[in-house]
Amino acid sequence: MRRDPLTKKSQVATVLKDGGRIVPGVREGLLQLLDHAGQEVPAWQTALRAAQGARSKA
Predict the structure, then answer these.
(1) 22 has which bridge partners?
(2) Is the CB of residue 22 less than 8 Å from the CB of residue 32?
(3) How far is 58 from 56, CA to CA, in rounded Å?
(4) Max intra-chain CA distance, the chain
(5) Which of 1, 7, 17, 41 could be 33's S-S partner, Cβ–Cβ 3.0 to 4.6 Å?
(6) pLDDT tens-place string over residues 16-54
């Protein structure tokens, strides 16, 4: 099943709220979004970084 990548901080935040997490990617400096089941969710790096920054301020 192919999903379009998430492009907005709010979309990434929804996945995080549902039990997902942001982890370091395979390549250095890149992030990866995983859903509650550990499956990769395609997302833009800018959206991941924005959501990660918002979580650290909360």
Answers:
(1) 33
(2) yes
(3) 6
(4) 34
(5) 41
(6) 999 999 999 999 999 999 999 999 999 999 999 999 988
Place of tokens 């982890």: 23
Q: Which residues contact 25 (CB under 8 A, 6 or more apart)?
A: 31, 32
User: Which among 41, 57, 28, 49 is positioned nearest to 2, based on CA atoms?
Assistant: 41
Which pTM was predicted? 0.88
| pLDDT for the residue numbered 58 | 65
Q: Where are the beta strands (DSSP E) in the chain?
A: 21-24, 31-34, 40-41
Q: In one letter, which amino acid is 45?
A: Q
Residues in the chain: 58
Burial of 58 from C-beta contacts in 10 A (0-12 / 13-18 / 19+): exposed
